[in-house]
Design a protein that fits this description.
5 helices; mainly alpha
Length: 136
């Protein structure tokens, strides 16, 4: 019974990672298109991504569906807000940022299925360190 609950929890985590990736891909494509239209679209994009993130949160909670897309929008909005602060304005490229967000989203969607394996690998690494400490 506990194994079934653990499997369901892992499946929900995988789905949430995929949904977050979908939100990041959509946000990345928005940033990419806005970067092609305007040289510095950061301020409007922060507002747009924030609005989309909050709207997605409200939709996810009212419809009682898996959360994730809203996280993708909100995290992308924070990255769009921080990008011109961290990168010098002469080197900042919204097209590059959009492509980076889209690729990060694709990475989440593709490698989201391996989260349980990565988690087990991390637990094994952490468990080996504890066993070594107990032996000493």
């Amino acid at each position: 019974m506990a194994d079934d609950e653990a499997d369901v929890e892992v499946d929900l985590k995988k789905r949430q990672m995929r949904l977050m990736g979908v939100g990041s891909v959509i946000a990345g494509l928005l940033v990419l298109v806005a970067g092609l239209i305007n040289e510095a679209p950061y301020e409007p994009l922060v507002g747009i991504l924030g609005f989309l993130g909050i709207a997605a949160i409200v939709f996810e909670y009212t419809e009682n569906i898996q959360r994730g897309i809203s996280l993708g929008f909100l995290v992308s909005g924070v990255l769009v807000w921080l990008y011109p602060v961290v990168v010098p304005p002469s080197q900042a490229s919204p097209v590059f940022l959009g492509a980076l967000l889209a690729m990060a989203g694709v990475f989440n969607v593709v490698f989201g299925q391996f989260t349980d394996r990565l988690q087990e690998f991390g637990a094994r690494l952490g468990g080996e360190g504890e066993e070594d400490a107990e032996e000493a």
